[in-house]
Design goal:
By secondary structure, this protein is an alpha/beta fold. The protein folds into two domains: about 210 residues, Periplasmic binding protein-like II (D-Maltodextrin-Binding Protein, domain 2, 3-Layer(aba) Sandwich), CATH 3.40.190.10; about 160 residues, Periplasmic binding protein-like II (D-Maltodextrin-Binding Protein, domain 2, 3-Layer(aba) Sandwich). About 40% of the residues lie in helices and about 10% in strands. A hairpin with a 5-residue loop joins β5 and β6. The chain is globular and about 75 Å long. The two termini are about 25 Å apart.
Length: about 450
């Protein structure tokens, strides 16, 4: 579920939309579920593999138990490009599971994934059981072509032993506090190089991505006119000036040398697990990595700090997640909807998957799972997910291209490559709007 980065399936999805026919549907735009005695086989494609694919199979077995006439072919290792190719070739799976919420704009606008709203209306499905931010990344411009299937939620991880040694008694709640705490927690070598960083502010390092930070700064991605707000929302300038100030404290070259020597994000040599950084932004899944790779680490979790001028945002954070839908041309759409509905709303199925995958279950009722609640490290992320200030980045017709533009600019400014921040933001906003018009 760790899906950060710009999606790669944009062109394939755009081509896929008109490449094959749909399914026979009733007057309401829905296909009927198979009768109890009708044998149906569903194909489900996802990028899961190994142990995680086995956990998905357990959830699918639960569905089969409730629908014994429907068998499920569970195929892993299938990314968005492969699904798009199958749609284009006229032989798509019945159900697709994607890790790339940045593609939702293309899934919905191109018709590559079918609109689920007629099914939801027909079955009177209550979408209020899904947090608003999660509903946002499963629809685009009124078309709901996906449902959520677990979520990733981001917060603060901090080393309790290092905090105690520095005389810090509670996690930071504002960005100014994060900066001041980081300075106290940083340890330099005799030659001035960084031995332990209080917090690494480098954009692109581990989970330090612009769309994640944006949630805690309260920045706006779009204005009321639908155009990019990078050049008009002052929070963008404030956020990037903070990142530059943080970088200048360490020194750009010192930071680059320090991070170059750290372990990869999804390896046992992760810098937080090794005690090389005192604080980090990360998702709930890190708790599972720490339990397996650094069980003796003395750490805690908390909501990530927020902008000084947005204190009411504290307790919320950024979310994204896995999504599930029915591709265009699916042969068994009626049965496929029954599976999609089960996987995205059945409390038991979601809790079982969440326990195994160590991801946040994506409905409000499923958050009450006592097994997940009793883990104090994990409970933080359940609370963030339930907070009304939970947010995500908006969907776009050209996928995650605008995220890449924003992050590329932010990286350039942070490294000293942009002399005029305000002008640079305005220029980047204009480019994002031009790209969106072309992509749309």
């Amino acid at each position: 579920m760790r899906r950060i980065g710009v999606a790669t399936a944009c062109l394939a999805l755009a081509l896929a939309a008109g490449a094959c026919g749909g399914v026979e549907t009733g007057s309401s735009g829905t296909a009927d579920a198979p009768a109890a005695g009708e044998k149906v086989s569903l194909s489900v494609w996802s990028k899961f593999s190994g142990r995680e694919l086995g956990l998905l199979q357990k959830a699918l077995d639960g569905f089969h138990g409730k629908h014994p006439n429907i068998t499920v072919d569970n195929r892993g290792g299938q990314d968005d490009d492969k699904v798009a190719q199958a749609i284009r070739g006229g032989n798509p799976p019945d159900v697709a599971i994607s890790f790339s919420t940045d593609n939702i704009g293309q899934f919905c606008s191109s018709g590559a994934w079918q609109d689920l709203k007629p099914y939801i209306t027909r079955d009177k499905l209550d979408l209020n059981q899904i947090p608003a931010a999660t509903r946002t990344y499963t629809e685009f411009k009124g078309t709901r072509c996906a449902m959520p299937l677990l979520a990733d939620v981001y917060g603060l991880y901090y080393n309790k032993a290092m905090f105690a040694k520095a005389g810090i008694t509670a996690p930071p709640k504002t960005m100014s506090e994060l900066f001041e705490y980081a300075k106290k927690l940083t340890v330099f070598n005799p030659d001035g190089s960084i031995k332990v960083a209080g917090f690494v502010p480098t954009i692109g390092f581990y989970s330090n991505h612009v769309q994640m930070w944006a949630a805690n700064w309260g920045v706006q991605w779009k204005g009321q006119d639908g155009k990019s707000a990078l050049g008009t929302d002052p929070q963008w300038q404030t956020m990037l000036e903070w990142a530059k100030k943080f970088t200048d404290f360490y020194g750009k070259d010192k930071l680059a040398k320090f991070t170059a020597g750290l372990g990869q994000e999804y390896s046992p040599d992760h810098a937080f697990e090794k005690g090389q950084i005192a604080m980090a932004m990360d998702g709930e899944y890190r708790t599972a990595f720490i339990a397996a790779e650094a069980p003796d680490l003395d750490y805690a979790t908390a909501p990530f700090p927020v902008a000084d001028n947005k204190p009411d945002l504290y307790g919320g954070g950024y979310t994204t997640g896995t999504i599930i839908g029915i591709p265009k041309g699916a042969k068994n759409a009626g049965a496929a909807w029954e599976l999609v509905k089960y996987m995205s709303t059945d409390t038991g199925a979601l809790q079982g998957l969440a326990q195994g995958l160590k991801n946040v279950p994506s409905t409000v009722p499923s958050l009450q799972d006592p097994t997940l609640q009793q883990d104090e490290h994990f409970k933080t992320f359940l609370d963030i997910f339930a907070n009304p200030n939970l947010s995500t980045n908006p969907a776009s017709s050209n996928g995650g291209a605008y995220l890449k533009s924003a992050e590329d600019f932010a990286t350039s400014y942070q490294s000293g490559g942009v002399p005029d921040l305000k002008a640079g933001l305005a220029k980047t906003a204009a480019q994002i709007d031009a790209d969106a018009q072309l992509g749309g």
